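Please, structure for the following, as tokens.
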Amino acid sequence: MRRAAIVHYHEVSLKRGNRSLFLRHLAMNLQRAIADLGPVPLRQLSGRILLELEGHPRPEAVRDRLARVCGVASVALAERVPSTLDAMRAAVARLVEGREFASFRITARRAFKTYPLTSVELNRELGALVLERARTRVDLHHPEVTIHVEVLPAETFVYTERAPGPGGLPVGASGTVAALLSGGIDSPVAAWRMMKRGCRVVFVHFHGVPYLPPTSQAKARALVERLTEWQYRSDLYLVPFGEIQREVVLAVPPPARVVVYRRLMVRIAEALGRRHGAEALTTGESLGQVASQTLTNIARIDEVARLPILRPLIGMDKLEITAEAQRLGTFETSIEPDADCCTLFVPRHPATRVSEEEIRAAEARLDIEGLVARGCAEASLETFAFPAPTGVVAAR
């Protein structure tokens, strides 16, 4: 039996003038996702991408990897047959042989309209075959089994099951963003959402060493390793922030410290992101969730950024974010106890509305340029890959 993985995409097909660019990124990411599973030839067909699996020892593993590629609407393992009615009938007969199912429907679609039979006629012919071969009935609305028949000029693909993909756009098609990554629940979800919109993400994590143990760095590595399964290569900057926070504590009144911390983080992350061509920053902020995430304080934080700051979770609540983290597989790592720099030198009652005058007065007491340069100079860079050829992280 000749088998293939059929990849369907949705949003990419709407791009018209630059569709070919998105398809190139999608094809490249599909190949990267299965790079360690052996060679799989890939071809772009009308409205879909074909990966040839004839003789491949692990077709289900290929399907599962492809179903995690951003830009993919669905993936199916299909039998490939000539586009003749007899060949289609034989393929459908093989699919239903030995199976028991209470109801079914045939979904036949023609990628070219000059085929001698219409979709309705194909549905009728193939449906009649199933009724001859199995004790079942037709149910067009809630069938137990759906048999898909995709008719192209040269060949037809027949299958019963589709694995849903994440949708969105292929990573790399929308540029690069730098993500401020904490060890919490929110920021990994925000980073993944930017990947789903086609962005490659560079990660920046601020830790409290030497005043806190390095546990948050281990969490950041684990989170980036998980998220790298969606973009295949990631860079993570680890920025020692404890000494910078100490300088702020010595000069800035307690109510304004959290906003000053965030403004410094934005400046440092922007400088590091620019090394990788980042055109925006992204954070896991959700409006009103903590003191630094009020509208007033968000405005104060945005003032220092020269790049746009994207906040894909801004309108989500904690329950929604937590549910998405659980789907991604980042939740269990995020809730592990750690010593995060966000807990270091934080006042008991941070201000929720810091004015422009207050923040200017507070930062006038600091060597902002020097602190930013220090953060960038002391940052270490680690690189992650998926599939990992050696199973280890390469640090630079």
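Confidence is low (pLDDT under 50) at residues 390-396. The first strand starts at residue 3 and ends at 9.
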